[in-house]
Amino acid sequence: MASITYGWDLEIILRALDISNKFSEVTTDSIEEHRYELHQSLEILSPKLEAYPGLDVWLMCMQDSELDLMESKMVGISSMIGGYVPELFWSLAPNVAIDDSLSSVGFESIIRFYQETKAQGIDLPAPTIHFSGWHAEKIILNT
After folding, report:
1. Least confident of 26-40, 41-55, 103-117, 129-143
2. For residue 100, how many C-alpha atoms fall within 13 Å in the half-sphere facing its CB?
3. Contacts of 113 (CB under 8 A, 6+ apart)
4. What is the pLDDT of residue 8?
5. Which strands, in side-by-side order, build the sheet including 136-138?
6. Sign of the CA dihedral 98, 76, 51, 47?
7. Among 55, 68, 70, 133, which residue's Cβ finds the most Cβ atoms within 10 Å?
8. For 75, phi and psi rounded to 5 degrees?
């Protein structure tokens, strides 16, 4: 069992919306610079996502109980397809997916985001399913 989110890699969205993704070029020995550049990009992206409930930036954690901002990040919605998540899998699911396993609002938002960016002449690839080794955490700007 793993975390399931539906959307795009963060870098794809940033390039499509012409937002800097300098953080992806930073080497692992400069975590503070990576955090700063990521924060700058998210400050520009976050207001654009506010019109789409459930559409967030997710950190795809590869190890339980460890938040490493240099791991894969994506823009999308969290979902847990298959109904109620047993307590055993709580640590393996996106935290918000526990109470709302298949949010219709989130799916409506991701479709509307895709259509509205296309109407602006921005061609995004189709959203894909992303799996994480453990869980997904929503990235909050003050972290």
Report:
1. 129-143
2. 9
3. 49, 52, 55
4. 93
5. 128-132, 3-9, 73-78, 56-60, 136-138
6. positive
7. 55
8. -110, 125
Instruction: Please state, in angstroms and rounded to a whole number, the distance separating the CA atoms of residues 117 and 64.
Output: 34
- pLDDT tens digit sequence for 7-22: 998 889 999 999 887 7
CB 93 within 8 A of CB 134: no
Q: Are 49 and 138 in contact (CB under 8 A)?
A: no
Dihedral sign (CA 83, 110, 132, 59): negative
